Give the backbone structure.
Amino acid sequence: MFRHLMLDRFWPSAVARAPEPALVMEDARQVESFMRAGREDGILAFTYFYNALQTLQHLRPGDTVLDLGCGPANQLACIARMHPQTHFVGVDASAAMLEEARATAARSGLTNLSFRLGDIRRLEGFASASVDAVISTLSLHHLPDLAGLEACFREIRRVLRPGGGLFLTDFGRLRRVPTQEFFARDRAAEQPALFTQDYRNSLAAAFSYAEFARMRGLLGEGVALRRTWIAPFMVTLHGAPRATPGESDLTRMREIFGRLGPDQQRDFRDFARLFAMGGLALPYQP
C-alpha cells in the first residue's frame, strides 16, 4: 500500500473523473452486496466504526441530524447506536436502498431513525436552518458532477443551523488507475466480485482533493478539510467540535469496538493511523 500511495502522490498527471455508471443504486444485487459489506462482520465495518467514532465530537443529545445518502443505513445504524438520544433522518435517492435501511433499523432495534426518499442536491421538505447537524459517509461520489457537489454543499449550508455539527467523508480521487485498482482488489478474496466492481467505480467517481478544497467555502467558515496521509484515498470535511461525550458514550463505543473481529480491529487502527498522520486524529481511543 505504501508504494502505491507514494507513486500516486508524485505521479505527474491525474486520471480524469469517471462518474458512477448508475447514479442511483437500484439493482437488487448491488444493493444486497453493499448492504452485506457494511454489516458488523462485513468488510466495511471498521471504516463505519471509525466514522461513527469521529461523530462523537460533532453530535449532541437531542439533535436532529440529517444523513445524506444513507444507503442501507449500516453506517447510520452504527452512528445511531452511539447517539441513542439523537434523532437521525436518512435521505437517499434509491427506494431500494431505503427499503434495506428500514430493515436495518428494525433488525438493530433502533427507534431514533427515520428515512426520506430524496435528492441530496435538492433537500425539499427541509426548511432553512432546520437541522442541528449534517453527516454523510461515502455518498458524495455518487453525485454526477461538480455542479452537483456545489448544489449539495449549498443545500447543507441552507438547512444547517448556525453553529451546527458537520461531518462529511468520502473517497478522494487517486491520480493513478493502478492505485485505484490496488484498493479495489486488495480484499477481492473476501468480497463478492460485484462489490469489487462497485468499489472500483466509486474510486474512479471520487472528486479530487483540490475540488473539495475549492468547494469547502460553500459550507461556511471554520470547516476543516483533511485527507489520509501521503495521498487522498479518503477525504473528510468537518466543523469545529461541539460535543463532549460522557462516560456512558465511551462505554458504548468500547462495546461496539469489542464486537469487531481481530482483523477488523487491526484494519481500524491502520485506517485511523493513516488519517492521524494526515492531520485528523481520533478524539477518543476505543
